Amino acid sequence: MQQTKALVENPDISYPEILDVKAFAEGLERIASDHPKDKDARRAAVLAYLRGVSQDGRTKAREILDRDGHGMGCARRISWLQDQIILHLYDFVIRHVLPALSDIIAITAVGGYGRATLAPGSDIDLLFLLPGKQTAQSQKVIEFVLYILWDMGMKVGHATRTIDECITLSKSDITIRTAILETRFICGNANLERELTTRFDKEIVRNTGAEFIAAKLAERDVRHDRSGNTRYLVEPNVKEGKGGIRDLHTLFWITKYFYRVRDTAELVRLGVLSRSEYNSFQKAEDFLWAVRCHLHFVTGKAEDRLSFDHQQEVAEALGYHTRPGLSAVERFMKHYFLVAKNVGDLTRILCAALEDEQVKDQPGLTGVISRFTARKRKIAGTQDFVEDKGRIALASPDVFKRDPVNLLRLFHIADLNGLEFHPDALKSVTRSLALIDDKVRGDKEANGLFISILTSRRDPALMLRRMNEAGVLGRFIPEFGRIVSMMQFSMYHHYTVDEHLIRSVEVLSKIEKGEDVEGVPLSAHLIKTIEDRTVLYVAVLLHDIAKGRAEDHSIGGARMARKLCPRFGMNARQTELVAWLIQEHLTMSMTAQTRDLNDWKTISDFSGRIQTLERLKFLLILTVCDIRAVGPGVWNGWKGQLLRILYYETELLLSGGFSEVSRNERVQHARDQLTEALADWPEEERKAYVRMHYQPYLLSVPLEDQVRHTTFIRDADREGKVLNTMVRTNAFQAITEITILAPDHPRLVAIIAGACAAAGANIANAQIFTTAFGRALDTIHISRQFKDDDDELRRANTISKMIEDVLAGTRRLPEVIATRTKYKKKDTTFTVVPDVTISNTLSNRFTVIEIECLDRTGLLSDVTSMLADLSLDIASARITTFGEKVIDTFYVTDLTGEKINNENRQALIGAHLKAVISDDVSDGTARVAPGVVTPLPPKAVRKTVAQS
């Protein structure tokens, strides 16, 4: 029998700190001598022994990782431990279980395991090599090894093939070719593995480099598209995401295949990577492996998505600490995204080198033709850059050194001519970033070029993203550099700060080009009237530039704008407008979503803050760009409608035209539109149902929803239903909508919210209005649970039935909620400090109560029930969700219709509400209204509760 050490590439490597190999082997020998004839007892003893060795070794590997933080070291230790288990298991089988084996096989590692790295929860990929056709004896050996590994709880991927089969399959299957490329001998017949490696190199690898590279890069692009095609998602996939471990694997595969090297260190000798770039590769690899290993240890499984639930634990394990402006987890994630960016840099550098090599290596006539067709063409207006197959390239290697402003010109000329970037040009940019110093930052032409790129009418976001990925943007604007790769530990924000800002510019560009008129009609109209585009684009790009600092980012951003704008060549008026927009960039959004827009004081206070129509236009467009760039599903039609209402009301006041007449005219126009939309209804019926809607409803709700609601109410009346519900779902927005028609009641909001809580539904938004004849028309948006529409609609109908049952009095909320919340686990991932604000200055008629806290199922039910218990009458409300945080605003009076002026009563209200939103009340069931049994007579006072 031929047997060698497990790691033939480095046979002397060992990790005695996690396993004493000699003692391990002796333990197996004792099992063999203790059970010479009882096969079952022997197998059970081997299984228990190997399981213990594996668990102990992994525990020690984790302890070492916690001490030194080296991810590659951990991955190699676990791989080596697995090698020892397989090696000694195989040795045990052929000496004590099936000793008559004559046709020696080879066991090799492939995939990630073939690179001698293994994450704690990763699959173990094995290739069993046969010297010829498989025999019954070799099959028994392989099965014994596999079943032991499976019974140990390991996920084993395996294939059993001859060398000929491996070669044949490699010719047609890139996946198999990649696996064999990484084959590493573990134990058995080493000659088989050597023969496979030799034949694979000679028959497969030689002269197929270009084909393999194209396939792996195409495979990478598909994978990136699947994961969102950005490396700046705030819950990245460490393995499969852009800039993750798989991208490093792709680089490894390509270099190993094309340059025929076994170690990436050889790329420095070949001149492909500089020493610093190679060090960057090693650091990126070590960091990503540390994150992945910690993630597997924390979750106890092969979890590669770095979700919010686990980011804090991993950050703590890696030793990150909170600093002013950034929490420990935010510092950790910023480091993660910077590493992901470095992986992108390395990919570009390698691709540039590969392209050069491919052109050089083409033989004979093909090479001559290729070099002829690859001739570079001049670009009009510049001698420093040339066009190479639709890509901008450098005319000479010293272009940037000769004039560092060329680092900006490169992107400007690419934009003007619609050119992509040659990878060699981007490699040179990355290596020349140190040339961007204070002199370049202060250069008038350089700043003019930057503003031209930013305000381009073509695709400014594309150029800004290229500049950011190459490192130019952060180097040219150091303030921007501080927020590169910065994430905010929040479910609301989907991207890093720099990616959010660039996406905001992208949204603005699309609005200006008329590509999103249907989604944002008012902004699309107003942008045509904007005279100073530069102010708008600069404000949009810089509005979050002060994130991650100790001071308020709006105030800090305004201060930075006053410093940067003059440098960009902007005059004093432009500078002040940009600074004001940044300082107020949250004002319009927060007012629209958390204040009652039907309260005149809201409009008056907001108008006093805005002061001019020009500011109002700019701020609306900036607000739209900001919200739409946060992430998928954050923007919706309801938010757009709220912003339009706020804009129109403020415009009237600022232009001196605010009056009930103007408002009545808009209400009448809305009524006329609804009447026209119901043209096929009988006239009397149409008039009656149009008249039932009050002003806030007609001004707030889109026409298509008005038609749907009115039809819904008529259908209920025809069927004689006092209570009625309807549902629909939106997969893109991840929202399910339930509309309820019910008799109005002081506790109606609390009852509906309680029914949703009882059904386990989380209310994200709500729009609640009262119609004529004392009926409420409530539309609630609940977070979607199922991907499939049919499944989600079934769930929505179940929730609707729960609401109807509770309102009809056939089910009681206290019992249902008590059952659902009995085993409820409190969310500890996010922390929001609970806060209650009570103000009598925000409205002339109502006391305004604003709560801010961590969102949870049943929160709205608890809060509205408490308000009812405190004898407060809710006149209107705004229920706003920002990821894990909610800001809910209630306009209330006492039962006599007066404000809450008594300070002692205000303190009592605040204390009770704080206990509710802190989830400190031990038993909330006593606060829950049981339901409405019978319809109530029409109310004399109209109530509206509108929700964003």
Give your account of this protein's structure:
- With 948 residues, the protein is of the alpha+beta class.
- Helices cover 56% and strands 11% of the residues.
- β11 and β12 form a beta hairpin.
- The longest helix is centred in the middle third of the chain and has 34 residues.
- The protein starts with 20 loop residues before the first helix and ends with a strand.
List the helices and strands and how they pair.
Blueprint (H helix, E strand, L loop, with lengths): L20 H14 L4 H30 L2 H27 L8 E4 L1 H4 L9 E7 L5 H16 L4 E7 H10 L1 H8 L2 E5 L1 H16 L3 H18 L18 H14 L7 H4 L5 H25 L8 H10 L10 H34 L2 H10 L3 E3 L2 E7 L2 E4 L4 H4 L3 H12 L2 E2 L1 H9 L6 H4 L2 H11 L5 H11 L1 H5 L1 H4 L15 H16 L8 H6 L6 H10 L10 H15 L4 H12 L3 H8 L5 H11 L2 H16 L8 H18 L5 H18 L5 H9 L3 H6 L2 H16 L5 E7 L4 E9 L4 H11 L4 E9 L3 E9 L5 H20 L4 H9 L13 E5 L7 E8 L4 H11 L2 E11 L2 E10 L8 H15 L26 E2 L3
Parallel strand pairs: 2-3, 7-8
Antiparallel strand pairs: 1-2, 1-4, 5-6, 6-7, 9-10, 10-12, 11-12, 11-17, 13-14, 14-16, 15-16
In the sheet with the most strands, the strands line up as 9-10-12-11-17
Low-confidence stretches: 1-11, 359-373, 922-929, 931-948
Strand residues, percent = 5-15%
Q: How is the main sheet built?
A: 5 strands, antiparallel
Share in helix = 55-70%
Mean pLDDT, rounded to whole units? 84
Could you tell me the radius of gyration in angstroms? 34 Å
In angstroms, what separates the terminal alpha carbons? 75 Å
Number of E strands: 17
Q: Tell me, briefly, the overall form.
A: globular
Q: Give the helix tally.
A: 41
Structural class assignment: alpha+beta
